[in-house]
Design goal:
The chain is α+β, with helices and mostly antiparallel strands. Helices cover 61% and strands 16% of the residues. The protein folds into 2 domains: 3-100, Peroxidase, domain 1 (Orthogonal Bundle), CATH 1.10.520.20; 105-175, Glutaredoxin, CATH 3.40.30. The chain has a 4-stranded mixed beta sheet with strand order 2-1-3-4. A hairpin with a 2-residue loop joins β3 (149-154) and β4. The radius of gyration is 21 Å and the shape is elongated.
């Protein structure tokens, strides 16, 4: 993440927090991020050096005025003016990280070979919350190559108890064994 994106995301978060809009703006930012990921040409248009700054801002204004909080729109327009609208997803990431840190939320990705049932998801979330003392935001992903078990990614850490990992460990032991 660039320092510029981090600065804009942090500034927007500070403003939103002061105004009591932090959760609402996070929701809007994530919705826009999803929309822009489906239509990446829109951010490229807002970055286009061939269009005057005023026209780029007008495009964003016409599309989003009344649809999102003015702070969100103004941030996007500011990024567009500066020719760095492509940094929007990184700004959202910076905002989200600060929001999560301030609110004790821990994002966790659980990777399994088959989808977790709702009961398994609930129990895993409860166990992680008890273990970490934070509110866990669990995202589940399926990767058949894990073969079985679960891999957890959170806080820059990886906790892995999968069949694939166990087999790799055994393979490593066997390679080192002298017969």
């Amino acid at each position: 993440m660039s320092a510029e994106a981090s600065r804009y995301g942090q500034a927007l978060y500070d403003l939103a927090k002061d105004e009591g809009l932090a959760q609402k703006i996070l929701t809007e930012l994530e919705e826009l991020e999803a929309l822009f990921s489906q239509t990446p040409d829109y951010l490229r248009l807002l970055d286009a050096a061939t269009l005057p700054k005023q026209e780029r801002c007008q495009i964003a204004d016409e599309a989003l005025r009344g649809q999102v909080e003015p702070y969100v729109l103004n941030t996007l327009k500011l990024l567009s003016e500066r020719g760095c609208a492509r940094q929007f997803p990184a700004c959202v990431k910076a905002y989200r990280e600060q929001y999560y840190a301030d609110n004790g939320i821990l994002p966790v990705t659980a990777v399994t070979a088959v989808p977790l049932t709702p009961d398994q998801t609930r129990r895993l979330t409860e166990k992680l919350e008890a273990l970490t003392g934070k509110t866990v935001k669990l995202q589940c992903r399926v990767d058949p190559e894990t073969l079985g078990g679960v891999r957890l990614d959170y806080d820059g850490k990886r906790v892995e108890d999968t069949v694939a990992k166990r087999l790799a460990d055994i393979r490593g032991l066997l390679k080192g064994t002298v017969l």
